[in-house]
Amino acid sequence: MHIKTMAEYAANGETPEVLFWVGCAGSFDQRAQKITKAFATILDKVGISFAILGKEESCTGDPARRAGNEFIFQMMAQNNIQLLNMYGVKKIVTACPHCFNTLKNEYPALGGNYEVIHHTSFLQSLIDEGRIKMQEGGSFKGKKITYHDSCYLGRANNIYEAPRKVLETLDAELIEMKRCRSKGLCCGAGGAQMFKEEEKGTTRINFERGQEAVATGASVIAANCPFCMTMLTDGIKEAGKEENVKVLDIAELIEQSMK
Amino acid sequence: MRIVQELLFVILFGTAVYLFSRKAGQIRKNILLGRDKDLNDHPDLRWKNLLLLAFGQQKMFRNPLVAVLHFFVYAGFLIINIEILEIILDGILGQHRLFVPVLGGLYPVLIGLFEILAVLVITGCAIFLVRRNILKLKRFISKDLDGWPRSDANYILITEIVLMLLFLTMNTADQALQARGAAHYIPTGNFWISGMLTPAFAGMSDGTIEIIERSCWWLHIAGVLAFLNYLPYSKHLHIILAFPNAYYASLEPKGEMENMPAVQHEVQLMLQPELAANAPASDTMPKFGAKDVTDLTWKNLLDAYSCTECGRCTAACPANITGKLLSPRKIMMDTRDRLEEVGRNIKANNGTFTDDNKTLLRNYITEEELRACTTCNACVQECPVSINPLDIILQLRRHLVMEESSAPAEWTGMFSNIENNMAPWKFSMDDRDKWATE
């Protein structure tokens, strides 16, 4: 599969249906790269013409802004908007809820207006349109899966149902944690915490969430965010369950179960 | 005699209203010390929030049992105000149960309903006292509430119970006197609850019961007026401010952070220097973020006065759950305490603030608290009266980083990585699409 960049499309005078905003975690983090590849594979299989920005993509500025550094945020945001507007981008899909939130809610004030979709919502519409078809008796059929709401998809943007609807197509047994949907417990990575040590406390947030997820008895924890992925994976390890419990992104679950 | 009582009442009522308005005016002044922010767009959505969140207490129903009890106390207090109106008019005009001839048969029904509400208020408050002092729910025994805040909560609940008991005793005495045909006690028909309690006064003389009735009447209305004046000093102010606070609640998605046009502009000039020629020169150095309460928006300050210290925010805060110092409730309590202090300072210095070497940041809220926040919005989600503690946390963080360059070393590294490599980690930009070729 050759993944084309916006520059390649533009050189041929073409425009793709959608821009796949990969994000820093999706580009550089080894675990998150697998999510990126899984989602790109789905788009390719379904036959959607998509592009990435490739080397031209920059951080959206989310962690800098939330840490308090508005200058770096504005630098990243304004450069990105200039680039996106130059390519005439209309529609963006991303597998990172932090990028999603920033592109969708914070770029319009700076002159960047796009239709921004999180990959779980995108997958749901592909399933609804019948463009993604699931295997009969896929590998997750009957398995216990619990879903972790990321803060930036859930509370920040009120998206609770789309990821659950996608998971329903797996024919798995969905078990909710007690703290779910708008009451979901953070994984501990947001607000730029991903990039620093936690403050002094009695435990780590991801250990607390990991235990809660393990307690459901699920063999798969479904995530929708590369940072939650890192945090939960460590949380499961701390609980000593990394052999029995896997943390997988919704895109990976679908990619492994579609025809 | 009657004219003396009328005069006394008018003086009592007038003083209570005057003192309350004066304090309310002071609070309004304090709130307006905040930075300006226009929150008058979309009145339709704002009225909807007012109706659902404040009148309907929508978010309280995240815990239905507590919500129902709270609703009784709230409805009781709101609806019994109709009865208070009669009491005030009676007091001013020297009448007794002025509304009886006007409402006729409806009167005992209304009073009967109020009495049922009074019993529900007593029940609700009693259960709330048990939850705070005997069951000791985690959010009520937190150290956030040590000292005055914990007493404040108990005083409020006890006062409400006492006021309702006075109301019921007054009605019972009235019913007993009516049954005996005592002068001035016009027949009203049977009150649903006090009507059943009259045997309690069986052996007493008319005179004694009348003294009880009059004492309860005076104590009740004096208690209500005293409570009104207690509100502005108490967390209980939420019964008033929850309404404007719901109206002015943010209509944006919770994930969106407020833009900083001053920084946007500066970065624009840096990236596109050709714009600088036309840019108006600014003579004042803009301040970035918030260090003290006056740097926050007026809505942040209204939030602080609206907080009733219930602690739902802190109970849901992942940092607090895992033992970090951060407590969103404390952020709000600190903001109110500091704002009151600044307000007193301005008053004492004839209208100008005199530096007291204190700020909200550090003297009240520490860096460690601010750094523990994951911006998960659980506190914002949980608050039943539309308070946003996260907004304050983020403004204080902006001050720390942009005015003081105070950030943990890892964050400083992250900033320079983003600036130099366009990613928060130290990877080469050229490797950004390496995954696509593997």
In short:
The complex is a heterodimer of chains A (259) and B (438). By secondary structure, chain A is an alpha/beta fold.
Please give the count of helices of chain A. Answer: 11
Please give the radius of gyration of chain B in angstroms.
Answer: 28 Å
Number of domains of chain A: 2
Main beta-sheet strand count, sense and barrel state of chain A: 4 strands, parallel
**SSE string of chain A, helices as H and strands as E:** HEHHEHHEHEHEHEHEHEH
**Order of strands, widest sheet of chain A:** 2-1-3-4
Radius of gyration of chain A, Cα only, in angstroms? 18 Å
By CATH, the topology of the largest domain in chain A is Rossmann fold
Q: What share of residues of chain B is helical?
A: 55-70%
Describe the model.
The complex is a heterodimer of chains A (259) and B (438). Chain A is of the alpha/beta class and 259 residues long. Chain A folds into 2 domains: 6-124, Rossmann fold (3-Layer(aba) Sandwich), CATH 3.40.50; 134-257, Rossmann fold (3-Layer(aba) Sandwich). Helices cover 43% and strands 11% of the residues of chain A. Chain A contains 11 helices and 8 strands. Chain A has helices spanning 6-11, 23-28, 30-46, 62-67, 70-86, 97-106, 119-128, 161-168, 205-215, 226-238, 250-257, and strands spanning 18-21, 50-51, 91-94, 115-118, 144-147, 173-175, 220-223, 246-249. In chain A, the strands form 2 sheets. Chain A has a 4-stranded parallel β-sheet with strand order 2-1-3-4, sandwiched between helices. In chain A, strands 6-5-7-8 form a 4-stranded parallel β-sheet, sandwiched between helices. In chain A, helix 3 crosses helix 11, helix 7 (119-128) packs across helix 8 (161-168) and helix 9 (205-215) crosses helix 10 (226-238). The longest helix of chain A is centred in the first third of the chain and has 17 residues, at 30-46. In chain A, 58% of the residues are buried. The mean pLDDT of chain A is 97. Chain B is built from 20 helices and no strands. The model of chain B has no long low-confidence stretch (mean pLDDT 95). In chain B, 63% of the residues lie in helices and 0% in strands. In chain B, helix 1 (2-31) crosses helix 15 (328-348). Chain B has 2 domains: 1-32 and 63-248; 287-436, Fumarate Reductase Iron-sulfur Protein, Chain B, domain 2, CATH 1.10.1060. By secondary structure, chain B is an all-alpha fold. Chain B is elongated, with a radius of gyration of 28 Å. Classes of the chains: A alpha/beta (259), B mainly alpha (438). Chains A and B meet through helix 2, helix 3, helix 4, helix 5 and helix 6 of A and helix 11, helix 14, helix 18, helix 19 and helix 20 of B.
